[in-house]
Amino acid sequence: MSAPNREAVLPQETAAAVPSRIRRIARHRHRTVPVLLLLAALVAPFQLVPFRVFQLTMVFVYALALLGLNLLVGHTGQISLGHGGFFAVGSYTAAVMMDRWDVPYLLTLPAAAALAFAVGLALGVPVLRLRGLYLALVTMSIAIFLVPLLKRFGSLTGGSMGLTLAHPEAPSWTGLAQDQWLYFAALAVTAACALVNRSLLRSRVGRALHAVRDNEAAAEVMGVRPAHYKTLAFAWSAMFAGAAGAVNTWVIAFVSPDSFTVNLSIMLLAGIVIGGLGSTYGPLLGGAFVMYVPTVAQGLNEAAPNVVFGVLIIAVMYVAPTGLAGLAGRAGRSFEQIQRKK
């Protein structure tokens, strides 16, 4: 065969190899997607302006809070309208420790998570004896009474005025700007908590939570104690929300009772439902929804942003009834089927 003929064959072979590479990538997407997301997250703060970096940082903060809510709602089958309260517990724990006691901000994270866990455990014992609508109403009361409680102890919490803090500075050895340092701090905490959550769900405890979610009576027959595991799930969920609250304090450098109304709890629940209950990427997608959609709604109609926000929620749920993560999963499977047919 002459050289020109070989050159004509090579492009055809290369073109034929492309679908096989795409199929291999599709088969290994469970490993490829996290790597690509991590690479994009590492590059983003060096390519965006400070305000966009701040917005992405808040996406991680909300994703961390939704990680806990996903554990409770998506993997245990319970419902909570009070997670804004645990978020506030973590935020105020970090703020008081930093402002009143001059504790280094990094040390406030385990304290905020531990206190939120303790509060969640204490509330979980009586609360999780309820189900359905009764459980939702009782958990919502947690967020309702928290605001006046924070205002009452003004000598510690700053009352209605809240507490204004100094933003944590980036260590000099990093060479990072303040917003970039906070971004990476939020990313690191969220990634670490996601790994802990993943290990938990893959353990015997995770299987017990799924058994309780699917059929509580059958789980009890198999030796699983539903009340025990539901209480622990409530406490773990509160712990993640408390950790998110601490990181939120680092980023915002301000806490106020009016920032943690029942609307925050409703927003978080809407975020995890929109993101995808029980899914791996649901908290991240829900965090992006909680961060960006209210801003979009405000831009579309300044007079009635809540109306626009509600319409957007209805539209998303109509297009993706299993959440954005479910929509992405269906798109990936459809793409894989198309490649197999080729």
Task: Jot down its keywords.
342 residues; mainly alpha; ABC transporter involved in vitamin B12 uptake, BtuC; two-stranded antiparallel sheet; 15 helices; 2 strands; disordered N terminus
Strand and helix layout:
Layout: H1 3-27, H2 29-43, H3 50-74, H4 83-99, H5 105-127, H6 132-152, H7 154-157, E1 163-164, H8 178-202, H9 204-214, H10 216-221, H11 226-252, E2 254-255, H12 262-275, H13 282-300, H14 305-319, H15 323-341
Antiparallel strand pairs: 1-2
Helix pairs in contact: 1-15, 3-8, 3-11, 3-12, 3-13, 4-5, 4-6, 4-11, 5-11, 8-11, 9-11, 12-13, 12-15, 13-14
Task: Walk me through the structure.
The structure is a single chain. By secondary structure, the chain is an all-alpha fold. The chain has a single domain (33-341), classed as ABC transporter involved in vitamin B12 uptake, BtuC (Orthogonal Bundle). Helices cover 78% and strands 1% of the residues. It contains 15 helices and 2 strands. It has helices at 3-27, 29-43, 50-74, 83-99, 105-127, 132-152, 154-157, 178-202, 204-214, 216-221, 226-252, 262-275, 282-300, 305-319, 323-341; strands spanning 163-164, 254-255. Helix 3 (50-74) crosses helix 13 (282-300) and helix 4 packs antiparallel against helix 5 (105-127).
Beta fraction of the residues?
under 5%
Write the element-wise H/E pattern from the N-terminal end onward.
Answer: HHHHHHHEHHHHEHHHH
Radius of gyration: 23 Å
* Unreliable stretches covering 5 or more consecutive residues: 1-18
The name CATH uses for the topology is ABC transporter involved in vitamin B12 uptake, BtuC
Distance between the termini: 29 Å
Specify the overall morphology.
globular
Transmembrane segments: 31-48, 54-73, 80-98, 104-125, 132-150, 181-201, 232-254, 260-277, 307-332
Pfam families: BPD_transp_2
GO molecular function, one term: branched-chain amino acid transmembrane transporter activity
Protein name: High-affinity branched-chain amino acid transport system permease protein LivH
